[in-house]
Specification:
Layout: E1 21-26, H1 33-44, H2 48-61, E2 63-69, H3 71-83, E3 87-90
Antiparallel strand pairs: 1-2, 1-3
GO biological process, one term: protein catabolic process
Domain Adaptor protein ClpS core: 18-83
InterPro entries: ClpS_core (IPR003769), Ribosomal_bL12_C/ClpS-like (IPR014719)
Length: 91
């Protein structure tokens, strides 16, 4: 008669938590849908469909998260939105 031993190994998994930020775009009464869409395509690398959907959400809801990522990636994108006359911030 033989015996089988089961050994349970313990190990820890280290997960790197990336602190993700968001660019939030706000509605205004100045910029046209076309301008917002073109700016989102250029600054945030949106597809035309994404940019259009975001512009509609901003129009009806007042704001929309348009890009999520690390701060260093978002800073120049947010600056491009602001330079185009849009209202945006990184949160």
């Amino acid at each position: 008669m033989s015996t089988h031993e089961k050994i349970q190994e313990q190990f820890s998994v280290l997960e790197e938590e990336a602190s993700l930020n968001e660019i939030v775009l706000y509605n205004d009464d100045v910029n046209t849908f076309d301008h917002v869409i073109e700016t989102l395509i250029t600054a945030c690398e949106h597809t035309p469909e994404q940019a259009e959907q975001c512009s509609i959400i901003v129009h009806y809801k007042g704001k929309c998260t348009v890009k999520t990522g690390e701060y260093d990636d978002l800073k120049p994108r947010c600056t491009a939105l602001l330079n185009a006359g849009l209202s945006a911030e990184i949160v």
